[in-house]
Amino acid sequence: MARAVVCRELGAPELLRVETACATPLAPGKVRVAIRAAGLNFPDVLMVAGQYQFKPELPFVPGMEAAGEVIEAGSDVRDVRVGERVIVKLRNGCFAERVAVTPAHLTPMPSTFDYAEGATFLAAHGTACYALMDRGALKPGETLLVHGAGGGVGLAAVEVGKLLGATVIAAASSEKKLAVAKARGADHLVLYKREPFQDAVKRLTGGEGADVVFDPVGGDIFEASQRCIAWGARMLVIGFTGGIGLAKTNLLLIKGASVFGVRAGEAARRDPERGQARLRTLVEWAEAGRVRPNISHRLPLEEVAKAMRLLIDRKAIGRVALTME
Hints:
Blueprint: E1 2-6, E2 17-21, E3 31-39, H1 42-49, E4 65-73, E5 85-89, E6 98-101, E7 106-108, H2 115-119, H3 122-135, E8 143-146, H4 152-163, E9 167-172, H5 175-183, E10 188-191, H6 197-204, E11 210-215, H7 219-225, E12 229-237, H8 249-255, E13 258-261, H9 264-270, H10 272-287, E14 295-300, H11 304-312, E15 319-323
Parallel strand pairs: 8-9, 8-11, 9-10, 11-12, 12-13, 14-15
Antiparallel strand pairs: 1-2, 3-4, 3-6, 3-15, 4-5, 5-7
Helix pairs in contact: 3-4, 3-10, 9-10
């Protein structure tokens, strides 16, 4: 018997229920993982509300990433051993105590991480890595503006941006979030309510503007960002937690700027070889102690609605993890 969070109707997180079911026999080519922790991502919130681009059939188990221990492997599986600590990446299904997956969905967990850190690593840091390296082509010495720098993917972008040699301007909604961004390497801190961030960016760059904008917020933030970009800037659309932003084509034209949509998971599915290369880079950084998720809240599986509310209300600093007690 194993518990899982089940979405039987689309809507608010409070509609989710934790249910118990019997494990099914393991199919050929698969392994069974005992999940110890699962990471929450904003797409999980959108998915249970029916507002995400991927819409699984009801009922479904949400959750895009988790970490745990392999407890069973099919006789035809050669590359995974029982007892191995692994990260699980799926489109949904990770908010459960047991999952049966193919080895392709598993990544060895960095030895430097605990299970909650492993469960909150790849979605955010993988997105940041793909966005800044593949889409934004961030170069050493360039200026990177990170919006929502206190969130999970924003903090990951701060870390990755510094590793790539950029000067990082972190923008966030509270002093506490900015303090964590500074600890992760941010060179300059911008508090949204203190002054218009576009003015701050111009001041910090001597009027030149940011070379790359990492934007998981959207809305007015995306629109205003177009007023503080450098010539040839790359604007990276990560998400839209603050609403759908509008492109000002005159501003983009004047600056010779480009706008890139970022879907790291879909990119990895379409180009597995490049996806694996980025994955290896991330794991190497983690083993060397150069990147690590910041987890502000660890909650039991039964408190999944509360955990999602932390994301919706922007009270999390970094990541939120569900733990299987």
